[in-house]
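Could you join me in thinking about how sequence relates to backbone shape in a protein? We need material for that, and I hope you will provide a protein of your own picking. Label the sequence line and the structure token line clearly, so we can match residues to local backbone shapes. Would you write everything just below, so we can both look at the same thing?
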Amino acid sequence: MEWSYWKVILKYGHVGQRKEVSVARYLTMSKEFTLLDVMAKAQLMPGVKARGILSARRITVDEYLVGNREEAENFYLQKLKTFNQITS
């Protein structure tokens, strides 16, 4: 299977009333996925606010690898992933 790589900037909630945290997420999807498919998947990710997609674009595998490393070091995402493991 061939893959496509995406950078999606999402607004996450639960940090106060009408406040948000914007975080870049790096996604791997099937090559057939379109921008609309990626946006639909991203909107369903845990913690994403309603109308929470700020931007989305296809990227290269090299950009994905760098971004994925940065994502792993993001403190907010580390906490979010830990919280979802406990509540799931």
